[in-house]
Amino acid sequence: MLDEDTLEPSDAQRRTIYALATAPGPSGLAVIRVSGPDTRTVLARMVQPVSRASPAPRTLARCAIVHPDTGARLDDALVVFFPGPRSYTTEDVLELHVHGGRAVSAAILAALEVVPGARPALPGEFTRRAFEAGRMDLTQVEGLRDLVSARTEAQRRAALAVASGASRKRYEALRAEIVKCLANVEAVIDFGDDEDDVEWAAFEQARDRAVQLRDNIKALLADARRGEILREGVRLALFGPPNAGKSSLLNFLAQREAAIVTPVPGTTRDVLELELDIGGIPVRVSDTAGLRTTADVVEQIGVERARKAVEAANVSLLVLSAPEVFVETPEGPRVEIPDTVQSLINENTFILLNKRDLLPASLSLLPHGGWLVSLTTEQGTLDFMGGFAHALRKSQLLITRRYDFKRDTQDPDDAPLITHARHRAHLESALRFLDAFLTHGPEEIVLGAEELRYAAQAVGRISGLIDVEDVLDVVFRDFCIGK
Ligand SMILES: Nc1nc2c(ncn2[C@@H]2O[C@H](COP(=O)(O)OP(=O)(O)OP(=O)(O)O)[C@@H](O)[C@H]2O)c(=O)[nH]1
Ligand SMILES: [K+]
Ligand SMILES: [Mg+2]
Fold first, then answer.
1. Distance from the alpha carbon of residue 310 to the mean position of ligand 3, in angstroms
2. Are 323 and 355 in contact (CB under 8 A)?
């Protein structure tokens, strides 16, 4: 077991860490990673080159892996040694490309335990060392984590750009601009007293820069949360009266019986969430309880949760039973939306009329901004799927003038910069400090300078330049072991 002090990765005396970097279980290959001061010991005691010469740095060499004490052969492998600092963590790093399968990697991991100074790595610890050595900033760490968990093509592209430093560059440039502005102000503080005109001009220049910066940050914040939505998936809530076919729709979208479907109204109680890929778009779909007033306490809670899920969603789909909402009028048939759902409809709500098979064939009125289907016979579902994916893509939330969700974008400056809620919070805080700076006149210039310093710090926090310990734990918590 690990004890407390071996868990602290920023020990003065850094331990050597090792972990399986690939998913456990039967597979063609598995990769075991080792990093730290004792890596050369591991190399000397556990790796026997077939050609007798020690493997050249950064070159794959065929070797036998042996037990450090007994010398027993554990596997035939390909081995690559990265002497620090030219390695992922900047420490000496060793990668053992061994045969896949639990017994092979288990034997090698057990053998590594015997090497003095070596211990199993914590989740994300290799990357944490790379971060602490300044090899990547916090946005790149986040990008890497997102890349590893990317499920769609659009997510992969965005995460790869961030991991490669696209966001880092832009945040650093933003921070540099604030620092320039601060330099102007400090020049006034330092030299101001003698030459009034010079002072005034430099102060005006700083103000102009601050106004410009404020506008830039405002523009970044007005991104309809594209980056966060792309990363986390569009939140889509299915809602409507009981028995409309919401759960049937979820199952249709998932192509499996994920939710319980019965003719009993009030079947779904809790919110059921699935991650799906709808036409290349990552979507987190919530099936919810049918909305109605009820005496059943459990159902009441379900209805409350349903409302919350719809309000929290980026896009909602109102599912209605067509035979129940079609009304005949002298002008022809019309769709009447039930009162119980009215309050939840907004500009991001689409409508799906279900149970088309129960309508007289002559009735085929389409609701505005909606579709008419039968989830039982699948009549109309092809149109719906194509149209809905298109609508999702076109939706204000996903596409702005400059961003094509499907094809992504060539220009990294056009990619959404804010990919995590944390970025948004720090940018908002930087904006507040810039605003505060602008409220100070030349006579309060020292106070003004302080606000600018805080603004620069707020942006610095995004990259992890400033007090990040608490953030780090959150960021690395979701990493897999061996990364
Ligand atoms: N005829 C017909 N029946 C359908 C169709 N879609 C769903 N149903 C049936 O309608 C009933 C209710 O379906 P559900 O998917 O459970 O409806 P729901 O909206 O999730 O219901 P609650 O969870 O109770 O609010 C089930 O018996 C389904 O088989 C359809 O297109 N045509
Ligand atoms: K039902
Ligand atoms: Mg249901």
1. 15
2. yes
Judge if 182 and 128 occupy the same domain: no
Based on the fold, state whether residues 243 and 259 are members of the same structural domain. Answer: yes
| Of the candidate ranges 143-147, 199-203, 348-352, 432-436, the one whose mean pLDDT is the lowest | 199-203
pTM: 0.75
Burial class (CB in 10 A: 0-12, 13-18, 19+), 165: middle
**Is the interface score ipTM higher than 0.95?**
yes
Dist CA 419 CA 481 (whole Å): 23
Q: Is 408 a domain residue?
A: no
pLDDT digits (tens, 9 = 90+) for 77-91: 999 999 999 999 999
Instruction: Indicate which CATH number applies to the domain containing 361.
Output: 3.40.50.300
What are 365-377's pLDDT values in tens digits? 666 668 999 999 9
User: 115 and 157, same structural domain?
Assistant: no
Q: 123-160: per-residue pLDDT in tens? A: 999 999 999 999 999 999 999 999 998 888 778 888 99
What residue type is 334 in one-letter code?
Answer: R
Which of 243, 271, 285, 299 for a ligand 1 pocket mutation test, highest count of atoms within 8 Å of Cβ?
A: 243
151 & 300 share domain: no
Q: And the tokens for 69?
A: 């004490």
Cβ of 242 closer than 6 Å to ligand 1, yes or no, is: yes
> Ligand 1 atom closest to Cα of 375?
31
Q: Are residues 153 and 121 in the same domain?
A: no
Please compute the mean of the pLDDT values over residues 398-424 and round it to a whole number.
61
Could you tell me the residue range of the domain that residue 191 belongs to? 147-223+425-477
Tally the domains of the chain: 3
Q: Residue 256: phi, psi to the nearest 5?
A: -160, 165
One domain for residues 215 and 248: no
Q: Give pLDDT, residue 356.
A: 93
245 lines ligand 1 (CB under 6 A): yes
Q: Are residues 236 and 214 in the same domain?
A: no
Beta bridge partners of 17: 35, 119
